[in-house]
Design brief:
Layout (H helix, E strand, L loop, with lengths): L28 H14 L2 H11 L10 H12 L9 H13 L4 H11 L13 H11 L2 H18 L1 H11 L5 H9 L10 H9 L11 H14 L4 H10 L4 H7 L5
Helix pairs in contact: 1-3, 3-5, 4-5, 5-7, 6-7, 7-8, 7-9, 9-11, 11-13
């Protein structure tokens, strides 16, 4: 099992679907082409087979390690030809990389673009609708957890007044992966954690709730509590004592408190 909350061997493979909203502006196709060509050139077909098997991905891999992926994408995302002055073009480019991905690393590249320093002007509450679409079409822990912790979390910390009601709604959404995103959206917050929001996301997904028996929800609850215990162990102990958690969630929550 991945330390980040990844799947157990018995978990079913994800079903990848396109994101719900079509681009409203032309994408920067030159950037997309450059990414695809660079990934193809840097790939390792032998490694790719094992990556796809481990991740249980319908999309094949190119076979890049995480460090190599970063090195490969860096000159493209930093290139002066690919500066985004328009939010619509930025979003359309992310969606093209994501929706038309023939290899999983192309979706990782979409996330790298979304989180790049040049994307800072667009990493705000307005981007949450894009992130929600990517969560609901990504439907697997590697993509969803990156979105929750590296994309949604900064927006929530930057603009809590506007972002908090949105994340609260996600915690009770019809989509399991949006619920997981809500649960994990404060992992990096530490002392800035909004415990009212955290409690809402957790209690809405305990055993007996719509997705309370799902592994990815039970694991997320334990992970969120375990992380917050590093900042406020008493709050976590009190929460665990007051609620009926699944054995997995409880074990993860108390891992470093015994």
């Amino acid at each position: 099992m991945s330390a980040s909350g990844g799947p157990e061997p018995a978990d079913p493979p994800p079903v990848l679907v396109p994101s719900a909203r079509p681009p409203r502006a032309p994408a920067n196709s030159a950037l997309v082409d450059a990414v695809r060509e660079a990934l193809a050139a840097a790939g390792d077909p032998v490694r790719a087979v094992g990556q796809q098997r481990y991740m249980k991905s319908q999309l094949p891999f190119r076979g890049l390690t995480t460090p190599l992926l970063r090195v490969t994408l860096r000159p493209i995302l930093n290139h002066s030809a690919y500066i985004f002055d328009d939010r619509a073009v930025w979003e359309a480019t992310i969606r093209m990389l994501w929706d038309q991905a023939a290899y999983r690393e192309e979706r990782y590249a979409a996330l790298a673009l979304a989180g790049h320093r040049r994307s800072r002007p667009f990493r705000d509450v307005e981007a949450l609708s894009l992130y929600a679409d990517l969560v609901q079409s990504g439907v697997w822990w590697d993509l969803v957890d990156d979105l929750a912790t590296h994309h949604v979390a900064p927006v929530l910390q930057k603009d809590p007044a506007r972002a908090t009601p949105i994340v609260r709604r996600w915690a009770t959404d019809q989509d399991m992966w949006l619920r997981r995103t809500a649960i994990l959206s404060q992992l990096p917050a530490k002392s800035a954690t909004n415990t009212a929001l955290l409690e809402h996301a957790l209690t809405a997904n305990l055993p007996g709730s719509r997705f309370g028996s799902e592994f990815f929800i039970r694991k997320a609850i334990g992970w969120a509590l375990r992380e917050h215990a590093k900042t406020d162990p008493r709050w976590v102990l009190d929460f665990v004592a007051a609620h009926q958690l699944s054995p997995l969630s409880r074990r993860e929550a108390l891992k470093h408190l015994r």
